[in-house]
C-alpha cells in the first residue's frame, strides 16, 4: 500500500515517517535558504521522504510531501499512486491549523482517497483540540481526525492503523 503523508510546512511529516519506518528513511531535506521560512527549523523537504512499515501482512510505503508551496508540484505527483492519505496539522503553531485549512482545500485529488486528518503535536501545552480543527477545516462528521505525537511510535502506529482500516 502507498500512503501519502502530507500537510503544511512544519506539520511533522518527516518526523512522522522517521518514527515509524523500518528502513533508513530516504530524505530530500535540505538546509533552508530563505530566512523568512526558517522559524525553528534548519531544514525543509524539497522533493519527498520515503519510509516503509509493516502492519500485519501489509507493507506500507510512506511517501512524505514537501510542505512549502513552492514545491507543490510534488503533492499531486506523490498522490497519484496513493491508496490513502494522512494529512498532518501542526496543532501547536499559531498559524498551523489555518495554513492547513488553506492547503487542504486546494488538494482536489484527495477527494478520491481515504483520509485521516492527523492533529499532530498534541503533547504541547498550546495545541488546539480536535473539535477546533474540525470547525476550522469545515470537515464532514465522517472524516476521521486523530490526535498524534509524531515522535511517539505508538501514536504514529495507531494513526496508520486507522488509515489502513479505511482503505478498501
Task: Give an overview of the whole structure.
It is a single chain. With 168 residues, the chain is an alpha/beta fold. The chain has one domain (2-166): P-loop containing nucleotide triphosphate hydrolases (Rossmann fold, 3-Layer(aba) Sandwich), CATH 3.40.50. The protein is globular and about 35 Å long. Helices cover 31% and strands 29% of the residues.
How far do the termini sit from each other? 11 Å
> Which range best describes the helical content: under 10%, 10-25%, 25-40%, 40-55%, 55-70% or over 70%?
25-40%
Spatial strand sequence of the major β-sheet: 2-3-4-1-5-6-7
| Oligomeric state of the chains present here | single chain
- Mean pLDDT across all residues, rounded? 85
Gross morphology is globular
* CATH A-level architecture: 3-Layer(aba) Sandwich
Secondary-structure content class: alpha/beta
CATH class category name: Alpha Beta
